[in-house]
From TrEMBL:
Superkingdom of the source species: Eukaryota
GO BP annotations listed: carbohydrate metabolic process
GO MF entry, a single one: beta-glucosidase activity
SUPFAM superfamilies: (Trans)glycosidases
Family: Belongs to the glycosyl hydrolase 1 family.
Protein name (database record): Beta-glucosidase
Organism: Cucumis sativus (Cucumber)
PROSITE patterns: GLYCOSYL_HYDROL_F1_2
Keyword Signal: yes
Amino acid sequence: MAIIKTLQFLLILFLSSQSFAQNEEDDEGIKRSDFPNHFFFGTSTSSYQIEGGYVEDGRGTSNWDVFSHIPGNIKNSDTGDVADDHYHRFMEDIEMMSSMGMNAYRFSISWTRILPKGRFGKVNRRGIVFYNKIIDNLLLKGIEPFVTIHHHDLPDELDKRYGSWMSSHMQEDFVYFAKICFKEFGDRVKHWITINEPNLVTLMGYIKGVYPPAHCSPPFGNCSVGNSDIEPLIVMHNMLLAHAKAVFIYRTQFQKKQGGSIGLVAYCHMYEPLTNNEFDLQAVDRALIFSFAWVYDPIVYGDYPKEMREVFGSQLPSFSNTEKNIIKGSLDYICVNHYTTLYAKDCLHSPCSNGGDRPIKGFLDTMGYRNSVSIGDPTGMDRFFVVPRGLEKTINYINQRYPNKPIFVTENGYSTPPSDGNKVEDIINDTKRVNFHRNYLASLVRAMRNGADVRGYFVWSLMDNLEWIHGFNTRFGLVYVDFQTLERRPKLSAHWFASLLGGNLQHSSSILNKNTFDHLMYD
Ligand code: BGC
């Protein structure tokens, strides 16, 4: 038995060294000392994806509770009812972060745990107690909390009353919620993120209609309600103003006393031209503008990009002068989630099968393949590919368009494709994830050497969790979760991070040999 185990382990090491060697971007490797001492290394999660405890201690019904309970909406009919049961196991989870040597953790607050019916009901003190315990225990372990106030899940009450983000009333609701968070947690939370990825919410919820509230119109889908051309513009506008007003409240009522800082997260894919033709090069610019600058131009400069105004005219909402004053500069740092690079193809000068609507009306199409060859190794997500150089390019782009802002990479991660193997052993020996993070971190170091002021890097995710409509089988975690028993088992990648960061994660699995692994990586 021992001989078989040893052979199995040697095979894993051999395969891992092969896959490291084969990667074109595998360079000098990285060390903790490539980053400043005060750099934050953390993991990221969100409430609905990990907490469970969905009817416990007064939590109200959220949009995702309603959506996930409709059969067919989520793969295998998975729901967040139990998820990782983090609601009961958070101490064990904090312990894992600590043993990996992480000094930061980004998590989100479940709106309905604090305000079961939004501002139309009482504050649920038991929800406050839960997050107080998390924050206090993180701080005891020397882990800095980065708190996202809203990450996709919102009170069903607000959907029912006025269609949540379709209504400008939602701005008031969000500010009401944010203010409670600042008041209750702001003495200890020094890094706030108002909203996670408004650009993804508009895409998935209001263009494609595959996330709640499932609004869309042809050619994007056949939802019972929605208008994929107009609604995303309204939703984005309300989310941006909600953000700006919450930042205004924070700055005027809390920041001075509490001494924290605040921002918002948007996702940013990188794009490369499908051909060397100048039109595809211009399509790359438009792809970035119509997805990322759509969010950040208003926050940094006070208005939408002119290219979007040219396309949408008066359909694109306008900011009043008062609103411009509030939104302009409503950030202390830029937070970006980066997962992939795609090819961009121009659709103004040559035809595209989808009419050139990707991202929203940008007259371009994006894809992962050129002549049937993928831009990078495929992952467990159809449109995510492993292209480490894309992170350097993303940070360079941000630093050029919005100079001199501190930057946090608030999500970057790898989901295991079925081709990596479905057995627990295969999933736990995640050499491709190790490779992914090592090469993306090396790319980040290059961006920092180019002059970007990057302050932190967060892995998506701490542990396998509910990957929204893809369910539990799309795994992004550094820690394996058995969704039957809820047992957690650190993957090879968790050990790799512990080794990089000087954590004391103990080798606990018969199929991993941490000592040999350390020797391989940091001899
Ligand atoms: C979201 C996460 C999600 C991850 C992987 C991000 O867009 O913020 O909630 O799990 O991507 O798809």
